[in-house]
Amino acid sequence: MRVFCSLAFELTSGIVKTRQTTGLKALQENHKSVAGVLHHKLGNKNYDLRRFFPQAPLEDLIEQFWFVDWQLSGDKPHTQKNLPDPNFHLVIEAHQVKLIGPVSKLYTYTMKGEGRILGVKFNIGALSHLLDKPLSQYVDKELSASEIFGDQVESRLLPLLDAESDRDIFNTLSAFLLNYTAGYCVSQHQALALCTLIKNDTSIFSVEALSLKSNLSKRTIQRVFNKHIGLKPKWLIRKYRLHQVLKQLEIGSIDILGVVELLGYTDQAHLIRDFKEIIGVTPGQYLK
User: Fold this and answer.
1) In the chain, what are the domains?
2) Residues with Cβ < 8 Å from 111, sequence gap 6 or more?
3) What is the rounded distance in angstroms from the CA atom of residue 65 to the CA atom of residue 244?
4) Which PANTHER family match (predicted)?
């Protein structure tokens, strides 16, 4: 497997420390608005979320690292609702390291007392070379990270739950994952470009429009999604267009009929159906 830079490892007090022999750059924190968490502004008082971009050798593999700590008083837990996500995530939490496949429906995570969860969000298509099944078989599935990253993954990464700094966590995860990088093929670049286009171009409401904007045939788009994403392009388009309106609904700048018109739905019933399928609740329930 390819390794892009030289790293030295030390095991100190049960925490894997890393030292990059060429010198480490400052961590680059991701300050973009959080889009995958429902009611983030209301919920983030219960936890501390930090996100970091990968360094250059890992940019093809990783979209971002995310670290969450919480310290809740009393016995009242906090349940955080999260939006569907087409990316794979490596997740480190109490007693386990797991790989979560693309998620097609709303999912929740409950925090109690004091705790920590660490994650790596992989780029679209970045794990294709490591997976031996069609991507559709990983949708809404969790598996032990050892199935993909080897038996040493827990002994190497679980100690990070006790690490004293984000830098230690970032460096150790980076060093570990450098061993799993591989060059992108053409179709992987296409998959990432298509997802980025869907996410950023709010005028795309159909696979036909995506085909025109990307200059790829509908058949090619379907093939790329099957190979590197495991979800249908129509589903991803609906997901990101619904993301568009969540913030507007929360601040009251648009009503349900306005959403129907903005997103090009034929009627309110179709909007409610899609909203509930992807967000998990109806628009009315979301606003309560």
Assistant:
1) 7-180 (no CATH), 186-287 (1.10.10.60)
2) 46, 47, 70, 72, 77, 78, 79, 80
3) 24
4) HTH-TYPE TRANSCRIPTIONAL ACTIVATOR RHAS (PTHR46796:SF13), HTH-TYPE TRANSCRIPTIONAL ACTIVATOR RHAS-RELATED (PTHR46796)
